[in-house]
What does this fold into?
Amino acid sequence: MSDPFLQVRDLKVHFPVRTGGLFVGQYSPLKAVDGVTFDLNPGETLGVVGESGCGKSTLGRAVLQLVGATDGVVSWLGTDLTSLNKKELIAARENLQIVFQDPLASLDPRMTAGDIIAEPLRNYRPTLTKADRRKMVEDMMERVGLLPRMINRYPHEFSGGQCQRIGIARAMILRPRLVICDEPVSALDVSIQAQVVNLLMDLQRDFGLALLFISHDLAIVRHISHRVLVLYLGKVMELADKAALYATPRHPYTQALLSAVPIPDPTKERNKDRVLLTGDLPSPLDPPSGCVFRTRCPRASSVCAETTPMLESAGEGQAVACHHWRD
Amino acid sequence: MSDAPMNEGRPPRANLSVPHADALDKAADVEGRSLWQDAFRRLQANRAAMISAIVLIVMAFVCFVGPVLVPWSYEEIDWDILEAAPPNFDTGHYLGTDSLGRDLLARILQGGQVSFLVGILATSVALVIGVTVGATAGFMGGRVDQVLMRFVDVMYAVPLMFFIIILMVVFGRNFYLMFLAIGFVEWLTMSRIVRGQTLTLKNKEFIEAARASGGSTISIIARHIIPNVLGVVIVYVTLTIPQVILLESFLSFLGLGVQPPMTSWGALIAEGAQEMEITPRTLVLPAVCLSTTLFCFNFLGDGLRDALDPKDR
Amino acid sequence: MTSVLEIDKLFVSFATPDGAVEAVTGVSLSVEAGECLGLVGESGSGKSQTFMAAMGLLADNGTATGHIRLDGINLLSATEKQLNKVRGERIAMIFQDPMTSLTPHMKIGRQLSEVLIEHQGADKETGRRRALEMLDRVHIPEAERRLDMYPHELSGGLRQRVMIAMALMCEPEVIIADEPTTALDVTVQAQILDLLTEVKDNLGAAIVLITHDLGVVAGLADRVAVMYAGRIVEQGTVGDIFATPTHPYTQGLLACTPRLDVETEELVTIAGQPPNLQNLPTGCSFHPRCPHVFDQCKAQRPSLEKMPGGQARACFHAAMGAAE
It folds into this structure.
């Protein structure tokens, strides 16, 4: 294995949430991301899955330092991003880009498609001439499947899928080495999702990108990822190679997640075995002691309430944080 | 699989084709229609707003160009009359004279100039300060926001009239000082509105996208925040102008406004009010001008608000 | 079995500043007691508007023509008073976002009993007792305590259960579930789907399940209708639609949905963009995106026709007997 170029070590992002106090507020930490560790290699896709509120979006933003980390290290090519000042950070972001969930909201409604895509160029390549910039934008538009003649159109004149292509073009124009995709297809129609997923995979292959693919859709993650990270209440439950994770999920949460996904096949869907979870996600302000998943876990025992399970190896390319994975 | 020609030269992946029959793509493919153009189109469809805009333009034009064509100047006293005379075409007093024998038409036009200037200049002052402070406070947040907004709160607590009277007393009655004074008062509300808008915008994904694209704080404020709050600001501006005009009229009415022989609509109304029983004309004419202007500005503001309605964004 | 709710040649259009938008064009459907009809389509396909029209809940600028019959009453020509009697009591609706469809300042218990008090003239006692029963029935833990809570104090999954309880209060003949699980997480979605299956099996009400998620349909529906650009393009039993889809759009939709149970090398896609309702293509609305398009598709609009097996589809290509 080559040297990992993104290393995240014990990353924590806590938000202070005001829970009381009249004049002087009392604050409790909301542990959005709580001790996440992973590596990402060039050209690799790491899928991050979990339910809403599990901290997956915060994790993506923390890697870019769009939200500050409370603790831990985000090391990019050997430099710890959390230690950089504003200027150095802006410089480092040249190689780190992000694609957002809501295609329309992530585009400035007052700018043309061309201006939006050109924005990173303005910031990082200020010496480019106008004509060169336009040429690069047009090439990129063509590359992501947009008609270059639509360069002067405004976001509201495009469909959702086309807007997402604009967002992708903006992220790709600097030829970054890592792109964070924060639920890039979940706001799109089914028939458009596949187009965008294929486009991302295409671009990854051509540009040798690493992708951090954040999604709640396990089927899409299975399709696009090489490895998958399962998050629950800000903690890693399981981190495994795709094949291992989908064939032999070790963590009860992963098993429950996988069995909950409806399969578009009436016979299979009606006859499959399901690990049904009871209840809902606990409040992240007041997570359970020990293993955070224990309140919904079918295998929970007294150990789970007392000690937090560490991420341990559970076979080739698979790590799991559960006391009972061998059961 | 498709006939889109630009797929040539691309790695052979069939499914990545561009839509080829989207009706939207065929029409108007070079120039997009921005939200501004959309809003303008909606504004044009609003008859009241368009008529108001035209009336305002005509009035402003007449006020600024008219004095050249009128035989009398606003400060010239017609020594042959020396009292409020009815309209008389032979002497060139088309609307008559005031109690000192000055031409009423000339004075109304000149008063209009002052009112329009106050409206526009004082609002511009308010606009520049308000938008800068509001956008900065909203976007930077934290301590900067606290300090700026507490300052605004303090300014709000200062009684407006008191503030202006003190300024007048300290610096003397100065035409331009009045613009500044009014502007300094009006920016407070503007800054609050802009700050509120900025706070909602700040959490939008496209601002985060701009940060991820390497934008600095200043460039994000200038390129993304300000253009997007402009819609609301424009509406507020058109509604501030009449307020300012009214404020100036009020000051002039109290005798704190422009210095004679210069006049404004407010001052004319004050003068006319003293003689309204003898010559109602001296009160009614400037009052009609003032109310028409205020009406038009308000109609236009309403029309703009509908046209720039955030629901349609 | 007889159909409870029958929709006949329904047209829904919306007046916009840029001209009329035809959201639903000539849709005919029927639901029988005890069955679940899945209505599948992407955003803008008109699947929600079809049943919003049935409930008399179209936006102000919308007009509906055609017939929607519930037990002989034409809902489209019914007065507001008649409609109010039908809504909630005979047809109930479950919406996508339970937070916005529950009144935020009213306690759960009151919201539930209100339905009963209004429609059946029940007294407060009975209302509360029935509300408690219903919450138990939809498996809400500590139901007694929840009665006195406000909607924001409940989680998304519980809120959706409350919505279902509310729909069941008057034991309606038809339940319309509009994307009931879209706003929920997968694990919670699974719970709600189980609950809906239970409701279907035990209650004998007709359920209309409006969704874009083929997986959800596969688990719950008995019959499926696929909509595209305001029309039904294919209709049949759930087994037929999933096993032998005949319309190219249905085929594409099934093929481009990534699946958890099969490893896919490359996702098949449907080319192009969703249709622009203001400017629909001539002929078959799907033709610009269709892989089998030929001249007739561009000129003529195919009508929905029944095939020997009971499946129906609106496609010239399939009509020519080309099985994929």
Observations:
- Residues 108 and 146 of chain C are 7 Å apart (CA to CA).
- Chain C has two domains: 3-79+175-267, 91-169.
